[in-house]
Write a structure and sequence with these properties.
Chain B: One of its GO terms (biological process) is thiamine diphosphate biosynthetic process. The complex is a heterodimer. By secondary structure, chain A is mainly β. Chain A contains one helix and five strands. Chain B has a single domain, classed as TIM Barrel (Alpha-Beta Barrel), CATH 3.20.20. A five-stranded parallel β-sheet of chain B has the order 5-4-3-10-9. A three-stranded parallel β-sheet of chain B has the order 6-7-8. A two-stranded antiparallel sheet of chain B has the order 1-2. The chains are: A mainly beta, B alpha/beta. Strand 5 of chain A pairs antiparallel with strand 4 of chain B.
Chain lengths: 65, 259
Amino acid sequence: MKLTVNGDTLTLQGTTITDLVNQLALTGRRLAVEVNREIVPKSQHGDYALQDGDVVEIVHAIGGG
Amino acid sequence: MSDSLHIAGKTYQSRLLIGTGKYKDFDETRQAIETSGAEIVTVAIRRTNIGQNADEPNLLDFISPDRYTILPNTAGCYSAEEAVRCCKLARELLDGHDLVKLEVLGDQKTLYPNITHTLQAARELIDDGFKVMVYTNDDPIVARELEDMGCVAVMPLGSLIGSGLGILNPHNIKLIMEEANVPIIVDAGVGTASDAAIAMEMGCDGVLLNSAVAHANQPVLMASAMKKAIEAGREAFLAGRMPRKAYASASSPLDGISR
């Protein structure tokens, strides 16, 4: 399915957020994920089935004041 | 002597709060922050690079949430809506951690706070259970409103973010402190150690800075200077300075001089 992830179009091989995180080689990283502007808690990443056209944001902590 | 800083039910020995932006690399970040003695460390929340190297280091591997109180900020947000969204992402990212630094900016030239949006975002965040440390201007009336609303610390600017111009309106900061019942932390504008010491001598509860250390020629050395400046300024405040006088007053006895 096609998703928009952090503004870029991406084809997901799989269905869940965990599949997406693995595909992006972000496994095990400290992340937060929004789907269509709603936060999906980490505990649900393995079960949450993404839909074609979903808009996903994945964020992390970086340096800042 | 016990002289600790209390924010949202937690006690801190250091009154220096420090940012993690603009360093050369994560090693320098870690060294500077360790040297500064800070216990509260700000971070920004940004999109993960898609297609990044899987081995790319992560800030929180260097600045551990087990060791430091991580204070996610909303830097870069120009509306209440964006800032609230950012805080919710930060809370999810940090496993329910609800202490945040709210800053809603007005424009890119000044990074001055947009107070209308700041007040709105603070209200929404507090209603949602966040503990809000809020970046604001040096207006005592706005500071009071933010405190009354339930912000856990009010953080007026000394001068513009990243300007290094020091505390341009100490009289306003004093007006804010006179009325405040929450910690008042000077956030933004500190350029060098004396600026931080001045803030503390005035009686501020703490100082939050980033550029002054990260943009020093030797950031780790400046972090050490800031630690000392904060401690010296605090002790000077507690000691109570002598009154200013217009004329001289000799320190050595005037009697018994050999003539």
